[in-house]
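Our consortium's second objective concerns turning raw sequence data into structural hypotheses that experimental partners can test. To show how far this objective has progressed, the report includes one record in full. It was chosen at random from the queue rather than selected for favorable results. The single chain below, 153 residues long, was entered without modification.
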Amino acid sequence: MPDAPATPKPWLILQALESALQRITIANGYRTDIGITVSLENTQDPEDTSEGITLFTLDLTRPENPNNHNTAIRDRELMFVIEAATPINTDNGVVRAHQRMHEIIEDIEQALTPVPGAAGSIPAQFSEAKFLERPRGVSVVAAQYIMTARYRR
């Protein structure tokens, strides 16, 4: 019977990132405990106003490299999103929730420096962080941290 196929590298990268994000706790020297609630893929309910992180794939592409055909065939770029949310409530208000989101973003950046990745992957590169618009009535502040990891198949 043939061996089972190996786990795909993009999934290994996401699992390594999930593990790194789960270490974000005050007990581990971070500003927040956002790492207590980390989920892979977009499984959060849009109505959920609890604090947490969702990690999901945005894009998987082959980078263009016109100078080296062999490298371009084997190389891939995994673009992923780390979406964090923190609630707005009567205790903290909008300003405090906004400040907390900056603390969460700093914690994420600290946890991913250097970015742990699957064997053979190149550390992820920061692309951008966006504070998401909050539709009227939604009681969370959310931000997306967008990164790209390059790896070889």
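The partners drew two points from this record. Residues 93-111 form the longest helix (19 residues). The chain has a mean pLDDT of 80. Both points have been shared with the crystallography group to help prioritize constructs.
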